[in-house]
Write a structure and sequence with these properties.
alpha/beta, 2,3-Dihydroxybiphenyl 1,2-Dioxygenase, domain 1, 2 domains, 4-stranded mixed sheet, 23% helix, Glyas_Bleomycin-R_OHBP_Dase, VOC_core, Glyas_Fos-R_dOase_dom, Glyoxalase
C-alpha cells in the first residue's frame, strides 16, 4: 500500500521557511537529512521538506522553475477549534498573511487560509 511520505516545497530560503513552520506548528527538524539545500520537518504522520531553488536543476525541473500561481495547498490539521484560533495569530506574528479568517466550511470543518512568508498557501484545519 502506498502512503505519503513527504511534501516538498521549493523555497528561496530553506532555513527561514522551515523555521516558520517550526515556530508556528512546533514541527521538529529531521537533522539527519539536513543539507545546504534541504531541510525536513517531522509532522508526525509524514514529513514536510524544503528544497532550495538549486533543486530544480538537480531534479531536471529547471524549465518549470518559473511556474506562477497557486500550485498546491498545504493542509495542517489541529486538535480543536481553539487551536485554529490560537495558531492564526502565531502564524501572522511569524510572517504569514491572512487570506481568510477562521470559518466553518460547507463540509463542517473549521479552518483559516493563509500564505506563508514566501507566498505558499496553507490552511490550519480542525475537522469537526
Amino acid at each position: 500500500m502506498a502512503h505519503l511520505s513527504y511534501v516538498n516545497v521549493f523555497a528561496k530560503d530553506v532555513v527561514a521557511l522551515s523555521g516558520f513552520y517550526q515556530r508556528v506548528f512546533g514541527f521538529p527538524e529531521i537533522e539527519a537529512i539536513r543539507s545546504p539545500i534541504f531541510r525536513g520537518l517531522d509532522t508526525g504522520k509524514s514529513s514536510l521538506g524544503f528544497n532550495a531553488l538549486d533543486a530544480y536543476e538537480l531534479l531536471h525541473l529547471a524549465e518549470f522553475s518559473d511556474a506562477r500561481g497557486v500550485k498546491f495547498l498545504l493542509n495542517i490539521d489541529v486538535d480543536s477549534k481553539d487551536d485554529v484560533d490560537r495558531m492564526v495569530p502565531v502564524a501572522l506574528e511569524a510572517g504569514a498573511t491572512l487570506v481568510k479568517p477562521p470559518y466553518v466550511t460547507y463540509y463542517n470543518w473549521y479552518q483559516s487560509v493563509l500564505l506563508d512568508p514566501e507566498g505558499n498557501v496553507f490552511r490550519i484545519n480542525f475537522m469537526m
